[in-house]
């Protein structure tokens, strides 16, 4: 994307952190997005993320009709949106369209390719306990979010996903037109002491996915 003086600006990523223990990886991801990938980064926290960083109230600057609305400004500013970690709570909110904080409002207003607005990549990196990751609702919620993207084969894609017993990240990226991308968690020792699937994907993997989607802006 070019700016008027002819210089190429840096890709812009809105980096959201939700209330998962894996939020401790947030600072590393943010720093590496800037230093290694050259992104222009803005950070957005949910209330759960406040346990790790400080957050601002979206509406404190809004006084009257015509004043800037933060979640719309953030949507318009960003070329892509990364949510890492994506907690089970925020996953449920996104899939049901709830709008009770800045992030959920950004996601509800995100450009999924409908109408005259071009779509922009949405990258989701879930992190949760194994039992929560393997719960049937998790798969259904991920399928619902995949269906937000406006593609001609959305119905067939959802039917394909519903026929699988587990959610496969490769399926979410097989259709290049669908830029809702799930960065699958990994198996490791979890915060609860159990060993299982549900840990946040490695920072290297998250950065790789961000790099691959930067060209879609």
Topology:
Layout: E1 12-17, H1 26-35, E2 40-45, H2 70-77, E3 80-86, H3 88-96, H4 102-108, E4 122-126, H5 130-133, H6 136-146, H7 154-162, H8 169-173, E5 180-182, E6 186-189, E7 195-199, H9 203-213
InterPro entries: Flavin_trans-like, Flavoprotein
Protein name: Flavo protein
Biased composition (Low complexity): 157-167
How would you sum up this structure, described in words?
The chain has 217 residues and is an alpha/beta fold. 34% of the residues lie in helices and 17% in strands. It has nine helices and seven strands, in the order E-H-E-H-E-H-H-E-H-H-H-H-E-E-E-H. It has helices at 26-35, 70-77, 88-96, 102-108, 130-133, 136-146, 154-162, 169-173, 203-213, and strands at residues 12-17, 40-45, 80-86, 122-126, 180-182, 186-189, 195-199. The strands form two sheets. The chain has a five-stranded parallel β-sheet with strand order 2-1-3-4-5, sandwiched between helices. A two-stranded antiparallel sheet has the order 6-7. The longest helix has 11 residues, at 136-146.
Total separate domains: 1
Percentage of residues assigned to helices:
25-40%
Any idea what the CATH architecture is?
A: 3-Layer(aba) Sandwich
Report the β-strand fraction as a percent range: 15-25%
Q: What is the H level of CATH, i.e. the homologous superfamily?
A: Flavin prenyltransferase-like
The N- and C-terminal alpha carbons lie at a distance of 7 Å
pLDDT averaged over residues:
80
Biased composition (Low complexity): 157-167
InterPro entries: Flavin_trans-like, Flavoprotein
GO molecular function: FMN binding; phosphopantothenoylcysteine decarboxylase activity
Domain Flavoprotein: 12-152
